[in-house]
Amino acid sequence: LFFTLVVVGFCGLASQGNNSAIQWTIGSMLLLFTFIYNCTVGPVCYALVAEMPSTRLRQKTVVLARSVFQIGGMLANILTTRQLNPDGWNWGPCSAFFWAGTGFVMLVWSFLRLPEPKGRTYAELDVLFEMRVSARLFRTTVV
């Protein structure tokens, strides 16, 4: 996802006037971005939000996560409108650099802090969190 946004940003830098080849490239990359997102990150988030919290706090955690998601969506829509609007910041396709940077920060955070719950029961996840096991060691730690 990061690389598709970087390509869109560089296409935005390269576009001068009405270059239809670059516009088609930008459109194609955005379609590719949407396809990859909808097949990977999009659905995985729902599973992780429901799987990671402790059993006693699951409902509250899901409500909090959805609330933060909705607020983040509103902020993203406000920022995107201002970035693309000619009367606003008028960044055009170069606004993809902003979202690529945000995505890269989230990628690093996910790699370092998001544990892998695959094959773990809810009780095992609770024990691993209680033992303060590092996210990178969740997969190999014996409970």
TrEMBL record:
Tagged with keyword Transmembrane: yes
UniProt main location, coarse: membrane
Transmembrane portions of the chain: 29-49, 61-78, 90-112
Membrane topology qualifier: Multi-pass membrane protein
MF term (GO), any: carbohydrate:proton symporter activity
Keywords: Membrane, Transmembrane, Transmembrane helix
Pfam families: Sugar_tr
Subcellular localization, as worded in the UniProt entry: Membrane
InterPro entries associated with the record: MFS_sugar_transport-like, MFS_Sugar_Transporters, MFS_trans_sf
Gene Ontology cellular-component terms listed: membrane
Keyword Membrane: yes
The protein, known as: General substrate transporter
